[in-house]
Amino acid sequence: MQANIVTLPGDGIGVEVVAEGVKVLQAVATKFGHTFTFENHLIGGCAIDATGEPLPASTLEACKRADAVLLGAVGGPKWDDPAAKVRPEQGLLGLRKGLALYANLRPVQIFPQLRDASPLRPERLEGVDLVVVRELTGGLYFGPRKEATPGDMTAYDTMLYADFEVERIARKAFELARLRRKKVTSVDKANVLAASRLWRRVITAIAADYPDVMLEHMLVDAAAMHLMRRPADFDVIVTENMFGDILTDEASMLSGSMGMLASASLGEGRNGVYEPIHGSAPDIAGKGIANPLATILSVALLLRYSLGLETEAAAVEKAVADVVAAGYRTKDIYTEGAKLVNTQEMGDAVIATLG
Ligand code: IPM
Ligand code: MG
User: Fold this and answer.
1) Cα 215 to Cα 236: distance, rounded to the nearest angstrom
2) Annotated active-site positions, please?
C-alpha cells in the first residue's frame, strides 16, 4: 500500500526516537512491499523558536492530510518560563483537539525479561495486560480556565464534560474490551466531582449495549493504589483526560520504564497520532541513550490502527519482544549482565530481527 506519514519529532529525545521509528517503518515498507512517504513538520518548542507558535498552521494542515502522524515529544527547560505566552505543550494539545482525537489508547504489557526493571515485586506482574483508554480532548485539560494575573491572583481549570463526549469514549472502551478479556474499569472521582457523576451515569447507560462486557467503577485514588496492588486484575481502564495522564505514568512502572509505553490517539476516522507516552527528557537529550522502543511500539499501533496492516504491526511487536528477550537494553531498562546499547543500536537490532 501507499501511505503518507507526517513525522513530528518535536523536542529533546523526540528527535532521536522518531528517527528510529522512521527507520523501522522504512524496513517494514521494504519487507512487505509498501510505499511510505514521510513529511517532517515542526511542533512544540522547536516550532516556537522557528515560527513563534507551538503548532504552526502548516503543521496542522499536513497532519489533517496525512494517513497517520508519528510524534516524538515536546517541551524542555528553554520554554519553561511560567510567564511565557506560548508553551510547547499547547502544540500537542492543539494537535489532539485539531484532529479531534478524543481516544488515547495506552497499552501496558509486561516483557517477562524486564520484570527486574520494574520497582514492583516480579510476582505482582504475573499476567499484567491492560489498556488505558484516556479521554483526550475534554475534561480538565480543555475546560474553561483562567490564569492568575498580578491584579487577580486566582486561577482555575475546569473539568467539563458533555454526555456525548463520555458516550463516545465509553464506546471505544467497550468495543476494545470485546476484543480482549471483556472487562471495563471506569475510573472517576464521583464521590466529589459533578463531572465524574455525569461520567459514571453515562458509562453505566452505555454498558447496557454491551451486556457481554463486565463493568466496574473505581475511584481514581483507589485505582492508583490497585494498579500497584493487583495490576493483573485490570483489562480496559477508561478515564478522564488528566486522570489518564497520571495513571499511565504510574502504569508504565509495571513494564519497567516510561521508555516502553506506546500510545495511539484516535478519533472517528482512520488518521491518528502515535507517540511514546514519555516526554522530551531534556536531561538525556542529544546523548543517544534514549530508549526508542516506546516509539517503535507506537509505530506498530500506527500500522494497525491507521493503515490496517495487522500482520506488519504484529511483526514489529514480535521483533521488539525478541530484541528484549535477546538481552538488548538501553540504559533505562539495563540490568546486570544485559547488552547495553544506544538508541540507534536498539533501532538497528529491531530491524535486524524483523528480517
Ligand atoms: C502525555 C503528556 C502530555 C499530556 C503533556 C506533554 C501535555 O504528559 O502525553 O502524557 O499531559 O497529555
Ligand atoms: Mg503524561
Assistant:
1) 10
2) 141, 189, 221, 245, 249
